[in-house]
Specification:
There is one protein chain. The chain is of the alpha/beta class. It contains 18 helices and 17 strands.
């Protein structure tokens, strides 16, 4: 090969192909590279043609250059040639011309658009609803648009179904609201101190009606607005129920309690049914001590047993099981609630038996029992067992339907047996955990004096009426309560108190702040302080956040019995060093 100093060097000289032998030695390498490029081109072409989302490329205000098979299906064309011939300019692809001009203007301003919902024109002239991601590029002085298209027709239909469900919910809530209004009128005439409760109930009604008039919101968003004031009303009613009231006023309080229970169960059950049917509930399987679950349930239901004059016995085992603690407790809580509901007098037993590699957790009652022909229907939606002692409608018959769905999510078997006039037994078979007996580390909290007496509690919620309700209930239990509506107030109250025993914090605060920030700030000064997240947010992402930070969760509206049981457990565990 010539050196550069020998005169003019050719391109072949520079790359080492200046003579025939050198060129021949590099031909195979070049051919291999060309083959690789061809395979890469074919691979990208295959990805383009077989992508799940529609893809097109076009010049602004000019013709389409290329479309893939998914876009052909979305727009109803048989071939790329047919679509390119029939559509022509890109502006003809959009169903509304002004929408296309608006999109181009935004593309020129920002360079790209993400998640833009619009309508494309199908081959028959109809519109198809889509979500598009668009990118504007400059190529040889031309403006070129590349886009990914997703058909959102099914999502739009789902939204319509949610709107219909919202309308049905509005009708149900309106009926409950009318019942509450009648109760409020009676209370207003008989006792002046009921005015605060009436105000909360009216606010709950107004917020419920306003939320349900917003037809473009999802059921979850509407339910959040309903659960907030209902939470305050529930806590106030619980406070009044624990006081010694005259018989007439006590009866009215019980009527409010029943009405709130009905509305709460309806909302909670509808939310759970919707999330379960949408596969939005994913179990988190861990090894759980049976004693821990039984202790929580006994603490929660023992007051109910005393109020109903029904005996409650709990027989636990020193075993571990493999399940999702929150979902399993949801099932057992429903079994126990039904046992007390259908047992006007007698006994209820929570126990368990080992059956092979499973633990059968059972709830027995000595109630009225269930007729054989009804056993096959009790897990259907809106089905309720009717007995002669039930004077009022309780719930809407979704509880066991939810239990059935949760059990299928957990892959746990549910069994039921009943003898009319003698009682029923509901059970669920849970896999035993692979934990050696000697490695069991859970220690049952030892009975101590009521840990709520003189307990210092900091409650944080951006709603003032919820703070007032929580304060009334906790102080009645003997707690010293400090309240705050935001991050700054919470830190101020904490500094003023010097030290607190437990935190009750709402998740969504004002100014885009969250309760997680409050807990982190206080734990920086007082590590390990027990904290409970009180929230109406039931989304899986937020629940995962709470779990990662080791937080207990109470869903709004808060059940006073469950709140007291959780506080007693956390404070008792802290006192015993667990």
């Amino acid at each position: 090969m010539k050196r550069p100093s020998d005169g003019q060097a050719t391109f072949e000289d520079l790359i080492g192909l200046g003579d025939q032998s050198a060129r021949k030695s590099y031909y195979p390498e070049l051919e291999r590279k060309v083959a690789e490029l061809e395979r890469e081109r074919n691979r990208y072409k295959w990805l383009f043609d077989n992508a799940l989302h529609g893809i097109f490329r076009a010049e602004v205000d000019a013709q389409l250059h290329a479309v893939n098979n998914a876009l052909l299906r979305i727009c109803g064309y048989h071939s790329e040639q047919q679509m390119l011939h029939q559509v022509g300019a890109i502006s003809e692809l959009f169903f509304r011309g002004e929408e296309y001009q608006n999109i181009i203007a935004k593309l020129r301003a920002y360079g790209h658009l993400t998640g833009r919902e619009t309508a494309l024109r199908r081959s028959d002239g109809s519109a198809v609803q889509v979500s598009v991601n668009l990118l504007l590029k400059q190529e040889d002085g031309r403006e070129v648009v590349e886009a990914f298209v997703a058909d959102i027709t099914e999502r739009m239909r789902a939204q319509e179904r949610m709107k219909q469900l919202n309308q049905e919910l509005e009708q149900r809530v309106n009926r409950r609201t009318q019942e509450l209004q009648l109760v409020n009128d009676q209370l207003r005439d008989e006792i002046t101190e009921r005015e605060l409760v009436e105000q909360y109930l009216v606010e709950a009604r107004d917020q419920a009606e306003e939320a349900n008039r917003s037809k473009d919101k999802y059921l979850a968003a509407a339910s959040h607005d309903l659960l907030q004031p209902m939470n305050a009303a529930r806590l106030l009613v619980a406070t009044l129920r624990e006081r010694q009231l005259p018989a007439k006023e006590g009866h009215l309080v019980e009527r409010i309690h029943l009405a709130l229970n009905g509305a709460e169960e309806l909302l909670t059950d509808l939310l759970d049914i919707a999330r379960l049917d949408q596969n939005a509930v994913q179990p988190d399987f861990v090894d759980i001590p049976v004693g821990h679950i039984f202790y929580l349930l006994e603490t929660e239901f023992q007051p109910l047993a005393r109020n109903n004059n029904v005996g409650l016995r709990v027989r636990s085992r020193d075993l571990y099981i493999r399940s999702d603690s929150r979902l399993l407790i949801r099932i057992l809580r429903n079994f126990l609630s039904n046992a007390f509901r259908y047992t006007p007098h007698g006994r209820v037993l929570l126990g368990c038996r080992v059956q092979g590699d499973k633990l059968s957790i059972q709830v027995w009652d000595t109630g009225q029992g269930i007729e054989q022909e009804q056993l096959g229907r009790i897990f259907e939606e809106f089905h309720q067992v009717r007995t002669h002692h039930m004077r009022e409608r309780q719930g809407v018959g979704l509880g066991l339907a939810i239990v059935d769905r949760i059990a299928r999510v957990l892959d746990h078997q549910i069994n039921v047996a009943s003898v009319p006039g003698a009682g029923s037994v509901f059970s669920i078979d849970v896999p035993l955990a692979n934990v050696q007996a000697g490695s069991l580390s859970y220690v049952m909290p030892q009975p101590v004096a009521d840990p709520l007496n003189d307990c210092r509690v900091l409650v944080v919620d951006n709603e003032e009426y919820i703070l007032a309700s929580m304060r009334a209930l906790l102080e009645q239990w003997g707690c010293h309560v400090s309240t705050a509506q935001d991050m700054e107030q919470a830190l101020c109250q904490y500094q003023r108190a010097g030290r607190v025993d437990i935190l009750l914090v709402d998740y969504h605060l004002d100014d885009d702040r969250t309760g997680l920030e409050v807990i982190d700030a206080i734990r920086a000064d007082q590590p390990g302080i027990p904290a409970v997240m009180v929230t109406a947010d039931r989304s899986a992402d937020t629940r995962q956040q709470f779990k990662e930070q080791g937080l207990q969760i109470l869903s709004k509206p808060v059940k006073p019995g469950k709140l007291r049981a959780l506080l007693t457990h956390l404070l008792g565990a802290q006192a015993s060093g667990n």
